[in-house]
C-alpha cells in the first residue's frame, strides 16, 4: 500500500485541532488512530522501535525523575490536567502527544513573574531510571515583559513520551536550550508547544546526541503581532541511531517573524536522521518574514539523511519567505587545502566538521553549555 494522499499543510494541521481540555483516553482511537507507518507524518519513523509509545501498549511502569533548579523569584509547583495553567499552549499533534497528555500524573509548572529578569538560567533535569515507559508534562509560563533562560537536560535510560508548553507573555523573552544526552537504549518522543504573545521573543536551541530513537516536534503558535521566533538545532547520529526533528511554524497573525536553522552529521551503518520543516503562512498573516534551512553532513557509507522543507503561503503580502535544504559529504577541496598545509587527514576532517557546527554552537545562549556541546561533538568525532 502507498502513503496517504498528501494534503496541504494547513488542511492537515487544522484537522488535528482538538480541545486539550476535553481530551481523554477514550478519545485516542477515535481522534488519533494508531499509526501504521504509511501516514505522511510517520513514514520516516521506525515504529517497531518506539516500545509501544505509539499504540497504547506502553504501560507507565517506568521511572523518570524531574528536578528543577531555579532562582528564588521563580515559582515551581505541580498540578493535574484540571489546572487551568495546563494545556494553554498544548495542541496534540499526533497519537504519541495525545497519549502522553492523557497518561501523565502531574505536570511540572514553572512560572516566571511579570517584569522579572532572571540572573541565572532555570535548569530542568530529566533523568530516566530504566524500566518501562513513562510520560511527562512540563509547563513554562513567562509573564509580561519578563526575561528568562531555561535549560532542559535529558539523561539516563527510558522509554519516555512528553509534552512541553512554553507560554510567553506580551513583550517577554524566553531562551530555551534542550539537550538530549540519553543512554544508547533510550527512546524519547517529545513535543514542544510554544505560544507567543504580542512583541514576545523566543529563542530555542536543541542539541540531540544520545538515545536509540529520539523524535522531537517543536511547534510555534502566534497569538498577536510582533512576535519573533528563532529555532536552532544540532544533531549527530552514530551507527543505528534514529534522530528525527519535525518543526511546525504556523503564522496566523500579521507582522511576525521566524527563522529555523538545523544542522546534522551522520556516521556509521544505519545512522538515520530526519528533518521536516513545516511553515504555514495563513491568509491573515500579512507582513510575515520567515526562512528555514537544514544542512546535513553524511560522513560514512551506510548513513542516511532525510530532509524535507515545506512552505505553504496563503497570502502574497509577505516581507520574505524561503526555505532550503542540503545534504552531502565533506568537501574534498576543504580537506585538500588543510592537508596541503601540513594538517593530517584526521585533524583536517575534524576541523572541517567543527567549522560546520561552529556558527550554530555560538548561538547557544549559555556559555558553559556551548563548551559542553562542543565537547560532546568532539566525543562523537572520536567514535
UniProtKB/TrEMBL annotation:
Q: Which Pfam families match?
A: SUFBD_core
Q: Which residues form the SUF system FeS cluster assembly SufBD core domain?
A: 131-356
Q: Name one GO biological process term.
A: iron-sulfur cluster assembly
Fetch the InterPro entries from UniProt: Fe-S_cluster_assembly_SufBD, SUF_FeS_clus_asmbl_SufBD_core, SUF_FeS_clus_asmbl_SufBD_sf, SUF_FeS_clus_asmbl_SufD
Which family does the entry's similarity section mention? Belongs to the iron-sulfur cluster assembly SufBD family.
NCBIfam families hit by this protein: sufD
Query: Could you identify this protein by its name?
Result: Fe-S cluster assembly protein SufD
What is the scientific name of the source organism?
A: Thermopolyspora flexuosa
Amino acid at each position: 500500500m502507498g502513503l496517504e494522499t498528501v494534503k496541504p499543510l494547513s488542511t492537515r494541521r487544522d484537522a488535528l485541532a482538538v480541545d486539550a481540555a476535553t481530551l481523554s483516553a477514550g478519545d485516542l482511537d477515535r481522534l488519533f488512530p494508531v499509526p501504521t507507518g504509511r501516514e505522511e507524518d510517520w513514514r520516516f519513523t521506525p515504529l517497531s522501535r518506539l516500545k509501544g509509545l505509539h499504540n497504547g501498549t506502553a504501560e507507565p511502569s517506568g521511572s523518570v525523575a524531574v528536578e528543577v533548579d531555579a532562582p528564588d523569584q521563580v515559582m515551581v509547583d505541580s498540578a493535574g490536567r484540571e489546572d487551568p495553567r495546563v494545556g494553554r499552549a498544548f495542541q496534540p499533534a499526533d497519537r504519541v502527544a495525545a497519549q502522553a497528555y492523557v497518561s501523565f500524573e502531574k505536570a511540572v509548572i514553572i512560572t516566571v513573574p511579570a517584569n522579572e529578569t532572571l540572573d541565572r538560567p532555570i535548569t530542568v533535569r530529566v533523568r530516566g531510571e530504566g524500566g518501562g515507559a513513562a510520560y511527562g508534562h512540563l509547563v513554562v509560563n513567562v509573564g509580561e515583559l519578563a526575561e528568562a533562560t531555561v535549560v532542559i537536560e535529558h539523561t539516563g535510560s527510558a522509554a519516555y513520551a512528553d509534552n512541553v508548553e512554553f507560554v510567553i507573555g506580551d513583550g517577554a523573552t524566553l531562551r530555551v536550550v534542550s539537550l538530549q544526552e540519553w543512554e544508547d537504549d533510550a527512546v524519547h518522543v517529545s513535543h514542544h508547544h510554544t505560544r507567543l504573545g504580542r512583541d514576545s521573543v523566543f529563542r530555542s536551541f536543541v542539541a540531540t546526541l544520545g538515545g536509540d530513537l529520539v523524535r522531537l516536534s517543536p511547534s510555534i503558535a502566534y497569538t498577536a503581532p510582533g512576535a519573533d521566533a528563532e529555532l536552532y538545532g544540532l544533531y549527530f547520529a552514530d551507527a543505528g541511531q534514529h534522530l528525527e526533528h519535525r518543526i511546525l511554524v504556523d503564522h496566523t497573525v500579521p507582522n511576525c517573524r521566524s527563522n529555523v536553522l538545523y544542522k546534522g552529521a551522520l556516521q556509521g551503518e544505519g545512522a538515520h536522521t530526519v528533518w521536516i520543516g513545516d511553515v504555514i503562512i495563513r491568509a491573515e498573516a500579512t507582513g510575515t518574514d520567515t526562512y528555514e534551512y537544514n544542512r546535513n553532513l553524511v560522513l560514512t557509507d551506510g548513513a542516511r539523511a532525510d530532509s524535507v522543507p515545506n512552505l505553504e503561503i496563503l497570502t502574497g503580502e509577505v516581507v520574505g519567505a524561503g526555505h532550503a535544504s542540503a545534504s552531502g559529504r565533506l568537501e574534498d577541496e576543504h580537506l585538500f587545502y588543510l592537508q596541503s598545509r601540513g594538517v593530517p587527514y584526521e585533524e583536517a576532517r575534524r576541523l572541517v566538521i567543527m567549522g560546520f557546527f561552529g556558527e550554530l554552537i555560538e548561538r547557544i545562549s549559555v556559555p558553559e553549555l556551548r563548551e559542553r556541546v562542543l565537547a560532546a561533538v568532539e566525543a562523537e568525532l572520536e567514535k
